[in-house]
Amino acid sequence: MSTPRDVAVLVGSLRKESYNRKLALALAQLAPAELKLDIVEIGQLPLYNEDVDVSPPDAWTAFRDRIRRADAVLFVTPEYNRSVPAPLKNAIDVGSRPYGKSAWDRKPGAVISASPGAIGGFGANHHLRQSLVFLNVPAMQMPEAYIGGVDKLFNDQGGIGNESTRAFLDKFLTSFAAWIEKNTAT
Q1: Taking a C-beta distance cutoff of 8 angstroms, is the pair 44, 59 a contact?
Q2: What is the pLDDT of residues 75-132, one digit of tens each?
Q3: What domains appear along the chain, each with residue ranges and CATH number?
Q4: CA 55 from centroid of its chain's CA atoms
Q5: Are 28 and 9 in contact (CB under 8 A)?
Q6: Are 20 and 75 in contact (CB under 8 A)?
Q7: What does the alpha-carbon distance between residue 60 and residue 23 come to, in Å, rounded to a whole number?
Q8: Coiled-coil ranges per the record (predicted)?
Q9: What distance in Å separates the CA atoms of residue 28 and residue 182, rounded to the nearest whole number?
């Protein structure tokens, strides 16, 4: 077997018991052999300020380097006020700078939004996709992933307890693996 594709996973919520973090961890367990999902922490990133880019904080440099090393990116996010949480937006901004040196450029990507509510973070999912277009991240269009009722999704071991949701996420990850191969520069 060849080396699995390195997928940087960004979790939009910083909350200790975040459903989206739990989902990201469950996805890492479900991932096909072609993918290795690795959560990249974003909570330590200082707020982006272009004035600081002349001598960037170590956290910015390490984050940008990690995203550049990744073969692809997966965003797992809740919805805050019909958009993405501030820490995730900050990570996107940090990775996109300095201008002309974006770490996101041409990284195949995918978005999963999850919420206890019925619409599963639809607004955040689509708002994030607007940014990904500008960042030149080819984002997988189908299958779309809006996970509603995420607060009832996990079994006692932290896995996906609902069989139909697990089957959907398996399909999503298999499709994402194919998307990465199709969109990876050789």
Answers
A1: yes
A2: 999 999 999 999 999 999 999 999 999 999 999 999 999 999 988 899 999 999 999 9
A3: 5-184 (3.40.50.360)
A4: 27
A5: yes
A6: no
A7: 25
A8: none
A9: 21
